[in-house]
Write a structure and sequence with these properties.
Nucleoside Triphosphate Pyrophosphohydrolase; Ubiquitin Ligase Nedd4, Chain: W
Length: 196
């Protein structure tokens, strides 16, 4: 940040009185500009038929990670709840009509100042189409997921946790249900090979 959004004058990094970390402070009007983590909200949209489960993934049409696969997700907007953001992003990126379930995963990505949250979701039908930010959308069984072409570590971890819960449910009956998972992504992403 270089200029104050209140008066347009330059800002400087300083530790305000009573604070413990540097903030952007306006040199003219004294406004303290706090910067907080961004919320990335999405879903794990699934279709289950005759015991076979598939997950809907989107192939990114934007940077970063153009051409890589992701769950439908994006930045939460002001004035909406996390569940509203999850449903909106799923519609915008995948054109999918879902029934939203419970919050499944919360992943802290502190090195890029983000928190990612994913809700469980069931597809109401198989009518879906890529939005402007997706090259294509496709259903995948667990064995067919392009694990080496997933866009972000949060996507891989969320899918791993989801399928691990599925195993527990099969072993312990449906009473086990899905859990809620909190996880910290502590290392920056290492770029894999370019997607085909």
């Amino acid at each position: 940040m270089k200029f104050c959004s209140e008066c347009g004058h330059p800002v400087a990094l300083a530790i305000p009185e009573g604070d413990n970390r540097p903030r952007h402070v306006c040199t003219q009007c004294g406004t303290i500009h706090y910067q907080n983590p961004k919320m990335v909200i999405g879903t794990i949209p699934v279709w289950e038929h005759e015991g076979q489960l598939q997950v809907l993934l989107c192939r990114r049409a934007i940077e970063p990670r153009y051409g890589y696969w992701t769950l439908p997700a994006g930045f939460m907007e002001n004035g909406e709840t996390t569940s509203e953001a999850a449903a909106r992003e799923t519609d915008e990126e995948a054109g999918a009509n879902i029934e939203l379930g419970s919050l499944f995963a919360l992943l802290n990505v502190a090195h890029v100042h983000q928190v990612h949250m994913f809700y469980l979701a069931s597809l109401r039908n198989l009518e879906f189409n890529p939005g402007e930010e997706s090259l294509e959308v496709q259903m995948f069984s667990e064995r067919d997921i392009p694990w080496d072409e997933l866009a972000f570590p949060t996507i891989r971890k969320t899918l791993e946790l989801f399928f691990a819960d599925r195993v527990k449910m099969r072993e312990g009956g449906h009473q086990a249900g899905y859990g809620f998972h909190s996880y910290d992504i502590v290392r920056p992403m290492i770029a894999p090979r370019e997607p085909d």
